[in-house]
Write a structure and sequence with these properties.
With 442 residues, this protein is of the alpha+beta class. The protein is built from 13 helices and ten strands. It has a five-stranded mixed beta sheet with strand order 5-7-8-10-9. The protein has a three-stranded antiparallel beta sheet with strand order 1-3-2. A two-stranded antiparallel sheet has the order 4-6. Helix 1 packs antiparallel against helix 6, helix 6 packs parallel to helix 8 and helix 8 runs antiparallel to helix 9. The radius of gyration is 48 Å and the shape is rod-shaped. The two termini are 53 Å apart.
């Protein structure tokens, strides 16, 4: 597998090198005459210098200036006026001019490079045509020297750009490598949340991604831990009724027919308990499944329905419903009804006869509270934090149950974007509230 590091580095480096190199080559190819006229030390600003000298001091100093130029750079210069006549003798010999004229019809190259430049004097508005003839050896020598600086600059630029590309590449691939390691650890269930702490402190997209990944990893680890704990608790809780069934069956095998008949109610009771436990476990598991889109839930109607069902089944207890008119939320009615039914059954176990169980739905501080309050003994404060965990029951609790009712209610609250609040009521009794943020409620 090819490394992303080298592909990114090579792409940066080659792109920059090609652009820089092609720019220089195209500049040489398309503007070679202009390059020589502007860069050659003997020709740079020559028309301006010669014109100023000619107009200020006359032909003699102007001719001497061109002769010094030939001695130093081996460049012959002719200066013509608008009519094509020579203004001064210049440095191009007549014999060389005749040779050049004869070579016009010949395909063989001349031994020099011929360049021209026009210049209009700002002082006299006179236009001068300057013709330069540079021998090829002189031009080749200058080319080698003139290209040394651009090539050196190009080399330095390539080194700097390579280092820059290296830093950019490392800034991309190193975070990706850390994220890859975190993904691997997460798959092996050895993920540590602080493994991306340094990356999460960055203020770029990788920092945001690391923070999101940390939250996802923490959530997944929490889910995995809760599922493992649930499996351990389920196996523990199922072991007790199964053991009782096994004992009852062993007794039934050895008992006389008359005694066997007495054991059947016990077997049926244990089967019912096992079925109830499995039903509660399945209800808890279904809350994590996709149940489709949320729909408006009529809370007053739901609470009155629960009241009617409870009073029909238990004539000794009375219920009071206090719901704000029009209280609604977006959710799943069946899930919410199951959660409130579990809270209500817990209240029925502990509420003394003669005291009403209160069902309410109210808006408090921007949150919607759906509460079930009883007038029982309540729960010790040190055990409140653990209530709602699967299979947890407060010590000294004698009422039947498996510790799944509050867990189902808590999971249903979280599915609606809220939480389950469990506390002792200041005036006595216990109150369980499903708290849903108002933006989630309808």
């Amino acid at each position: 597998m090819r490394s992303l590091f080298w592909r990114i580095l090579a792409s940066f480096w080659l792109a920059i090198a090609l652009v820089a190199g092609l720019s220089i080559l195209l500049g040489h190819m398309l503007n070679q005459d202009a390059w020589i006229l502007s860069r050659h030390p003997g020709l740079h600003n020559l028309p301006q210098k010669w014109t100023q000298l000619y107009e200020d001091q006359g032909e003699g100093p102007a001719q001497e200036f061109l002769q010094n130029l030939k001695r130093k750079y081996h460049i012959d210069v002719q200066v013509l006026n608008d009519s094509g006549e020579a203004i001064i003798p210049g440095t191009f010999p007549p014999r060389a001019a005749a040779f050049e004229e004869r070579q016009q019809d010949d395909t063989r190259p001349l031994p020099w490079r011929r360049l021209t430049a026009e210049y209009t004097s700002p002082k006299t508005s006179e236009t001068y045509l300057l013709i330069y003839r540079i021998p090829h050896p002189e031009l080749d020598a200058w080319h080698r020297e003139s290209l040394l600086w651009p090539l050196s600059a190009l080399g330095i630029a390539l080194v700097v750009l390579t280092l820059f590309s290296l830093l950019v590449t490392l800034s991309i691939t190193r975070p990706l490598s850390r994220l890859r390691g975190a993904v691997h650890d997460l798959g092996q269930t050895t993920y540590q949340q602080n493994s991306l702490a340094q990356l999460a402190n960055r203020r770029d997209e990788f920092g945001v991604l690391a923070n999101d990944f940390n939250r996802m990893g923490a959530r997944l680890q929490s889910l995995i831990s809760s599922q493992r704990q649930l499996l351990r608790d389920v196996s523990h809780e199922l072991r007790s009724p199964l053991a009782r069934l096994r004992v009852a069956l062993a007794l039934a095998e050895r008992a006389e027919p008359a005694e066997r008949q007495k054991l059947w109610p016990r077997l049926i009771r244990e089967c019912d308990r096992l079925e109830e436990l499995i039903s509660e476990i399945l209800a808890l598991a279904r809350l994590d499944a996709d149940m489709g889109s949320a729909v408006p839930v009529d809370l007053p109607g739901l609470l009155n329905h629960l009241k009617a069902e409870t009073e029909m089944a238990d004539t000794e207890q009375t219920l009071e419903v206090n719901a704000e008119p029009g209280a609604q939320l977006q959710g799943w009615p069946n899930v919410l009804e199951r959660a409130l039914d579990n809270l209500l059954r817990n209240a029925l176990r502990f509420n003394p006869v003669g005291q009403p169980i209160e069902l309410s739905a109210r808006d408090e501080g921007g949150d919607l509270f759906i509460s079930v309050r009883d007038h029982g003994p309540g729960v010790s404060p040190e055990h409140l934090a653990q209530l709602g965990e699967p299979f947890y029951r407060a010590p000294n609790q004698t009422a039947p149950g498996y510790g799944l009712g509050l867990a189902i209610a808590k999971r249903a609250s979280q599915k609606h974007g809220g939480d389950l609040l469990l506390e002792n009521h200041p005036q006595g009794g216990f109150i369980a509230s499903i708290v849903v943020p108002r933006e989630t409620s309808g």
